[in-house]
Specification:
The protein is mainly alpha-helical and about 120 residues long. The protein is built from 4 helices and 3 strands.
Amino acid sequence: MKKDPKAIADEIISLVSELAALAGAPISERPAQSKKPSSSGEKDKSGATGGIRLLVEDGKLDSPKTLSEIIEFLKQEGRHYSNPTVSMGLLNLVRERILTRLKDKGEKNWKYAVRR
């Protein structure tokens, strides 16, 4: 005898509204929704990953850049993060397939660029 979760939620809302009316405090039908970035493309611009997203939008990562160059771009934007923090943000964007990383020839450093 399972009930539909939506039906249970509607029943709770109606009971709370009835209780509020008895107490003399009107309540709206639906509680206010919290503001969250929509998952339909609007990503969070906070933190190191958000700063890197802004660099991508500005076109600063159209050509391959090293970690130190990206950190310098972020500092110019007023965003100061440690090397490991920026490195993790870059790796997250590589995993999301927004960026790609290329091995620098002759060196052991990675270069990051927008994925095309």
